[in-house]
Amino acid sequence: MKQRKIILSEKEIPEKWYNIVADMPNKPLPPLHPATKEPIGPDALAPLFPMELIKQEVTPDKWVEIPDEVRNIYSIWRPTPLYRAYGLEKALDTPAKIYYKYEGTSPSGSHKPNTSVPQAYYNKQEGIKRITTETGAGQWGSALAFACNHFDIQCEVYMVKLSYEHKPYRKIMMNTWGAKVFPSPSNATEIGRKILAKNPDTTGSLGIAISEAVGEAAANADTKYALGSVLNHVKLHQTIIGQEAVAQMAKAGDMPDIVIAPFGGGSNFAGLAFPFLRLNFEEGRNIRCIASEPTSCPKLTRGVFRYDYGDSVGMTPLLPMYTLGHNFVPAPIHAGGLRYHGAGVIVSQLLKDKLIEAVAHDNIEVFEAGVTFARAEGIIPAPEANHGIATAIAEAKKCKEEGVSKTILFNLCGHGNFDMKAYEDYFAGNIVKHELTKEEINASLAQLDTPEIAI
Ligand SMILES: *Cc1c(COP(=O)(O)O)cnc(C)c1O
């Protein structure tokens, strides 16, 4: 029997997270105060996040210790398996070797508990009673609900209205772990009421939901906010994925030429790719790391690199990022987790420095890829994950055309068992190919009055 699954023991759960900033040739530019536009220190984040996470946000240290209690909870589903995709290789008739790291084995079904658990842990350490957040596809809300429940913290989730309507079972999942869930924009906050008054039929966006959750945390001392993507500490926590994958590829006697992950704000991409980029930095390897985004929200491939707000009303610090403009509201695609206007600071700097690459796929292509994968490998992927699969398939086809064998590794960052509505729409022919025009992108960028960055 050929070895399909490469597994590690619980003892091999990494003991440290990897901070790529320590190895970056150009460090990320500082965040700026939204009003004064002056660089801000870590203290400015204190109303929203516990001190330990703020420290992690700015730490120059290359390694950060994972608390024992966090590793202990990780062991519920970690280490996650790494698969050789024999079925997909055969279906594509490619000389490429394809592997995938599967993060769908977590209780909530994606990579997100890798960061929700340490975030809830540090909040608990600092006496916090309530955590607010936003969720796009429902993945982050579920992950945070799971983690807060473990530490007996009240969890309140603002869920993008489109997903709230598409994914009622994600909401019930959060309720099961004890969380309160609001459709965003909601009547529960002032910001939500304002947006609803202007545009009662809006399907919502991650940017709007973030504004609601941040507003609640800023206004209450016993309440903090938690973010499931974009920020440095989130990416830091996710590096547990890639560290395991490096060990698993070594166990398989192989090493990827290409590492691929879908891209929303950058956390699962960072999680898988950064530990391989470390090998590029330390050993002079040349592993290509590719981020896959939707053509309907193409900040990496068609956005600009400049300061922008993390939310849609301009409350957060200004961050140096690839962005489509904070007012950008993407088409209502099923990959809710990828409907974010910007990209994380570290990933943006890496892309600007050409240390990573990005590609975009349209809606039809990604569902074709997802169905091909499900029929070849069995697991039904989350719609977000289908973007990474589309890139992996494109690269494997290139190998076939060129008659070369490369080793491809991608992140299957979540299962799609709650996403049957998306697959139903695809099979019914209701998924439309959506490509933004130059004019649409320019119209959004023209609204930006945030500082530009000299290149
Ligand atoms: C949240 C999510 C994403 C997008 O967020 P990243 O921070 O870019 O990883 C992608 N896939 C799944 C399954 C998600 O839950």
UniProtKB/TrEMBL annotation:
User: Would you tell me the Gene Ontology cellular component terms?
Assistant: cytoplasm
Catalysed reaction equations from the record: (1S,2R)-1-C-(indol-3-yl)glycerol 3-phosphate + L-serine = D-glyceraldehyde 3-phosphate + L-tryptophan + H2O
Instruction: Please state the Enzyme Commission number of this protein.
Output: 4.2.1.20
Arranged from A to Z, the UniProt key words for this protein are:
Amino-acid biosynthesis, Aromatic amino acid biosynthesis, Lyase, Pyridoxal phosphate, Tryptophan biosynthesis
Please give the start and end residues of each transmembrane region: none
InterPro entries given for it?
A: Trp_synth_b-like, Trp_synth_beta/beta-like, TrpB-like_PALP, TrpB-like_PALP_sf
Instruction: Name the enzyme's class.
Output: lyase
| Modification N6-(pyridoxal phosphate)lysine occurs at | K112
Q: What does this protein need as cofactor?
A: pyridoxal 5'-phosphate
Q: Which SUPFAM superfamilies match?
A: Tryptophan synthase beta subunit-like PLP-dependent enzymes (SSF53686)
A single GO molecular function term of this UniProt record: L-serine hydro-lyase (adding indole, L-tryptophan-forming) activity
Q: Residue limits of the Tryptophan synthase beta chain-like PALP domain?
A: 77-414
**Pathway, per UniProt?**
Amino-acid biosynthesis; L-tryptophan biosynthesis; L-tryptophan from chorismate: step 5/5
Task: Describe the subunit structure.
Answer: Tetramer of two alpha and two beta chains.
Its job: The beta subunit is responsible for the synthesis of L-tryptophan from indole and L-serine.
What NCBIfam families would the database entry show? PRK12391.1 (NF009057), trpB_rel (TIGR01415)
Q: Which family does it belong to?
A: Belongs to the TrpB family.
What protein name is recorded for this chain?
Tryptophan synthase beta chain
Q: What species was this sequence derived from?
A: Portibacter lacus
Gene of this entry: trpB_2
